[in-house]
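Sample A.
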Amino acid sequence: MSENRSPHILSTSANLLGICFIVLTSLKKLNLANGSLIDEFAVLAVVIFMTSCILSFISMRRERTVSKRLEKIADIIFLSGLVVLSVATLLIAFNLIK
């Protein structure tokens, strides 16, 4: 497991961050944000993916020992962002968010 995952975490987090911004913009434009939790989930995902992007970028610029620790933290934060998006998607799919 000596591969460097930081570039992969950075690019994937950035892509998912963009998707979250598209969701937020769509919700605001279609006036669907009122009375639902969808926008709160999207904002939470934005914060999580932005944190993951920043940590993975910093880990690419640091020395090996610090880099591995930051990469691991960014990886865990990225995974939590995926969980938030998965829960939000399931709730949207089953119309449980009101």
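Sample B, a different protein:
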Amino acid sequence: MKVKVKMNKSVLQKLSNAQITALEQTAEAVKTDVIASQVMPFDTGTMQNDSTSIDTSKSKQGEVAISVDTPYARRLYFHPEYNFRQDKNPNAKGRWFDDWIDGDKKDFAIKAFKKIYKRLTGV
């Protein structure tokens, strides 16, 4: 038996680019869902609205990062025992990303990636 395979490089490149775009948009979807879930401590909104960003510099290697760049974010994140005000964000707590890592929303990123990738590629 003889098999001949011809690869369509332009389609493969399109699929590869769609993976990168879908990864970046998935990170944005997670960030948006975290904010919409109102789990971040909120006083003036600096940490949630101004200092939460997505680093896509390594997205071609399959890595994105959501970071909160304030001097106090680390302290608040790793001390869930603090009594967080809940007048502006009723679900405010420490370790606010845990629901998306291993909690109730752990499948959120996977489902979002699949949906975005499908929309981008039509596959």
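Observation for Sample B: DSSP finds five helices and two strands in the chain.
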